[in-house]
C-alpha cells in the first residue's frame, strides 16, 4: 500500500524534498507531523465523543429527576385525570365568560392560590397563570372547579420548579 502511495508523483516529490532537508529540519517536521496527528485525533474524535457522553449523562439524570417527581406526585396526577374523565358537572351556574372569571378567581383565593395573570379567551374560556405553587393544590383546585362548577380544563401546561412538588402552571379553563 505504501509502495503505491510512493509511486504517486506528488508524494514522490514531497519525499524527495523531505530527503533534501537537513537532519534537524527532518526531525522538526516529524515532530510537527506527530503533533498535528495528535491534535486532529483529540479535536476531531476524542473531544466530541466526551462532550456527547457528558450531554447524554446530563439528559439521563434529568429524566431520572422527572420520573422521581412524577412518581412523588402520582396521586395528584391520577386525581386530575379522573376528574377530567368524569366530564363537566351538571350543577354549573356559570353562564358566560364574566361569571367564569369571577368563579375562577374567587375559588383560587379560597384554595389558597394566587393567580399571577388571567385573561379571557373567547366567550366562554379564561387563561390563568400560576407561578411557584404546589402541584397538589392546583390539582385539587381544578377538581373542585370541575365538580362544583362544571369548569373543564381545555389546555394545561405544568413546568416543575427547583423545589419538589412546586410548579408553574398555565391553564385554559372553559364552561
From TrEMBL:
The chain crosses the membrane at residues 28-46. It is found in: Cell inner membrane. InterPro entries: T2SS_GspM (IPR007690), T2SS_M_periplasmic_sf (IPR023229). Keywords: Cell inner membrane, Cell membrane, Membrane, Protein transport, Transmembrane, Transmembrane helix, Transport. It holds the Pfam family T2SSM. GO terms for cellular component: plasma membrane; type II protein secretion system complex. One of its GO terms (biological process) is protein secretion by the type II secretion system. Coiled coil: none annotated. It is a single-pass membrane protein. Inner membrane component of the type II secretion system required for the energy-dependent secretion of extracellular factors such as proteases and toxins from the periplasm. Belongs to the GSP M family. This is Type II secretion system protein M.
